[in-house]
Amino acid sequence: MKLTFLGAARQVTGSCYLLETGGLRLLIDCGMFQERSFLARNWDSMPVAASSIDYLLLTHAHLDNSGLIPKLVRDGFAKRILSTPASRDLAEVILMDAAHIQEEDAEFKKRRHRRERRKGPHPVAPLYTTCDAQASLKLFKTVQYGDPKRLNEHVTVTFHDAGHILGSATRRC
């Protein structure tokens, strides 16, 4: 078993952990960095190939836990995202809203940069689009609390109520 911290280490946001166990690569959360000093990390490539991840386990829908899922999908993740039904429903609202805001923000920045004749430190493009968010939502598979989900012959995941927000879960692998 190997656990790699890909986010939320020495900061509050950007929750993302890679658990390698039982022949699987499980990404636990895929959150957006929201602290001003870490915002640039949202543009970084994932340190592991998105296509090499077997499952994404979403603990809850807060943006700092789910916010980079559409980017991960755009970058090649095409497997199942497991969450509780409530987390999936909230993630739809949150990810679609975040994508819409990013699209609007990119257009605003393009106009402002043209007007000011300058370039910003990041590409003037949304981190991901509403199309990316919609594509990611198609990968969700919901799991009820207490219902064991067998991922392979060595790994079973069970979500338990974490009491954090609606749909939040802690899991046992």
Q: What's the arrangement of secondary structure elements?
A:
Elements: E1 2-7, E2 16-21, E3 24-28, E4 55-57, H1 63-66, H2 69-74, E5 80-83, H3 85-116, H4 130-137, E6 140-142, E7 149-150, E8 156-161, E9 169-172
Parallel strand pairs: 3-4, 4-5, 5-6
Antiparallel strand pairs: 1-2, 2-3, 7-8, 8-9
Helix pairs in contact: 3-4
Keywords summarizing the entry:
single chain, 173 residues, elongated
Distance between the termini: 11 Å
Roughly what is the average pLDDT, rounded to an integer?
A: 93
CATH class reads Alpha Beta
- DSSP summary: helix tally: 4
Description:
With 173 residues, the protein is α/β, with parallel strands linked by helices. It has one domain (2-172): 4-Layer Sandwich (Metallo-beta-lactamase, Chain A), CATH 3.60.15. The chain is built from 4 helices and 9 strands. It has helices at residues 63-66, 69-74, 85-116, 130-137; strands at residues 2-7, 16-21, 24-28, 55-57, 80-83, 140-142, 149-150, 156-161, 169-172. It has a 6-stranded mixed beta sheet. A hairpin with an 8-residue loop joins β1 (2-7) and β2. α3 runs antiparallel to α4 (130-137). The longest helix has 32 residues, at 85-116. The protein is elongated.
